[in-house]
Amino acid sequence: MKKSSKTDKPEKISRVVVIGTSAGGLSALKKLISQLPKDFPLPVLIVRHISPDATGNVLIDELNKLNTVKCQHAKSGNNLKPGNLYLAPSDHHLLIGGNLKMLVTKGAHENRSRPAIDPLFRSAAVAFGTGVIGILLTGYLDDGTSGMKAIKRCGGICIVQDPDEAEYPDMPRNVLNNIKVDYCLPIAEMGPLLYKIIPRKLPMRKPVPKDVLVEAKIAERVLSDLSSVNKLGDQVPFNCPGCGGVLWKVEKDSNLRFRCHTGHAYTAASLFAEQTNKIEETMWTALRMFEEHKNLLTEMARGKKGVGSQTAVERIKKSQVHIDRIRSILKTTENEGGDDMPT
Q1: Is residue 22 annotated as a catalytic residue, yes or no?
Q2: Is 6 part of a structural domain of the chain?
Q3: What domain range includes position 259?
Q4: Which one of the listed residues 92, 93, 113, 143 is annotated catalytic?
Q5: Which of 122, 208, 231, 283 lies 20 to 30 A from 311 at CA?
Q6: What crossing angle do the helices spanning 170-178 and 145-153 adopt, rounded to 10°?
Q7: Tens-digit pLDDT profile for residues 162-174
């Protein structure tokens, strides 16, 4: 009688590398991952901002051509394995759950992005504590700063690309302006640095700050209620652009940061950018409606004579004034903002 074969237990993982990038990320990631051999002793998880309609296959293919760590899209419920790189799929957040399995979720956008960097970094800080190595590369605005703070507060290691080298220095520079990072260096020096860090004995784990834990659970959709967000701060007198709900200011963060109870989260910069987009959308709608209003008045004026015709002409002129004003506003804002979502 044959003995039943035992299932292989997943290898115990005590360290993990998490990487965040946005604009300019393809080139930056190729430079970094080319330094990691097939037998790299840690799992690597990556969030790169990407548009919802993109597949991300271009990045996977480019990284696999390097013949280094095995690169693949993350799948929810899978274990983390050393020598493997897991990329967040488009339009999904990538998180690490409490059981050290990957979670791929359709949670609310953070910093106008899904996938977003902060949720991955935060979940890694909660799951691995002092065993997290966080790396932030090139990109616009400031996604990743809050996540890096969580890593730092949980005792992990923070590495930032030198902004002078970064194609888009906003993200690295925002981290440096707000956190005392462990290392700021060019990408070419990151591979050797990782091999210096990995053999070090892990420090004793720190207790996870309550606010970091709450935000991590919100991202997992474990919590999504008023009492949870109330623990993070006080309501502010403006609404969430994502769902129209009330926003709370995250008081325990030294940066201006906001959350709604459904899970949307914004830094001040990303909230401003999203409000700007919403204003522009509203202005385009108003322009369309005034033009339709003018066209209807023109149709109504046809065939009219006397006082009725004069009144219609005056109303058409007033509509044109509003149309010209809205067009002028749109012209002044057409170059503001910007989309950093690569395809």
Answers
A1: yes
A2: no
A3: 224-263
A4: 143
A5: 283
A6: 40
A7: 999 999 999 999 9
